[in-house]
Amino acid sequence: MRRGIAxxxxxxxxxxxxxxxxxxxVLGLAVRRQSMSLAGLDPNAMAVxxxxxxxxxxxFLIGCGVVLGRAVLHDRPLGRFGRLxxxxxxxxxxxxxxxxxxxxxxxxxxxxxLIFGFVLWSLLLYGAEDHPExxxxxxxxxxxxxxGPKGGAPSPA
Length: 157
Description:
Layout: H1 2-33, H2 43-74, H3 80-103, H4 106-127
C-alpha cells in the first residue's frame, strides 16, 4: 500500500513540475510580448526571472520525486536529507494552496491539497526509520525509597 501511495505522489509531483514550468514559460512570454514592467524593471529581465523561477521550481519538484522514488525502489525509510526535502515540499504546497485559492479558485486549491496530502502521507509512511520496538532498560540509578511509618503506606513528601 505504501509503495502505491508514494508512487502516486511521485507521479503528481512530476506532472505538477511540468505544469508549473509551462505556466511560468507562458507568463514570461506574456511579459516580454506586452512589454510589461513593474517599478521600472526591464521587461526582458522580468521574463527571464519568470522562466528561471519556473525552471528552479520544476527542478525542485522533480528532485523531490527522485528522492521519494529512491525510497520506493529500495523500500527503505528516507534519510535526514530526504525527510527535510519532503517537509519543504509539503510546506511549499501549503503556501501555494493558500495562494491559488485567491488567484485561481477552489478547484486549484483542491488539486494543491491533493498533492499536499500525498506528499505528507508518503512522508509519514517513509519518513520514520523502522526500529524494532525494544523495551527501555531500567535506569542504572535506583531511586531511593524513603522509609515510612511502620506497617503503613509511605507518607507523601
